[in-house]
Write a structure and sequence with these properties.
- The chain is α+β, with helices and mostly antiparallel strands.
- The chain has two helices and five strands, in the order αβββββα.
- It has helices at residues 3-39, 117-153, and strands spanning 41-56, 63-74, 80-86, 97-103, 106-111.
- The protein has a five-stranded antiparallel β-sheet, with helices on one face.
- The longest helix is centred in the first third of the chain and has 37 residues, at 3-39.
- It starts with a helix and ends with a helix.
Amino acid sequence: MGLMEVFFYALPGILVVFGVLGLVRTLKRSSEISRAWRHGRTAEARCLRSYATTSGGGGDTSVTTTLHHVFEFTTAEGRTVRIDERNGRSTVVEGDFVTVYYLPENPEGATAQPPAQGKLAVGTGCTVAFFAVFIGFALVFMGVAHLFFSVADGFGP
């Protein structure tokens, strides 16, 4: 197996690993939020900070802005927890109080998003579909490369 073959197997293999990790992370977070909404506890949290991050913008690409909020709340057990949540509501500003939903065993996974099971399901479904296509593309690429290298072995000197 030559260096070129290793490259055409390793690169898609790495992409598959990243795709699977992204898929697992997405499903885990979605499940955590859903369980917090259904079976978790609520607490009043104060917005300590609101800030935005940007990505992209190189060359002709568009810029993506993500709104973050830092919330602090006290659990029913008296523990103070601070969370940094992405994609929050733009109407929440520093000093505002919001309701957070959390699981007692993992208050760091709290969310200030209001319960919206349908919206969560659609968002999770779209993300899962993206990762499935991403992983599928990498596997097909790897399969096509394997086919080409198998055929090419018969033509070499």
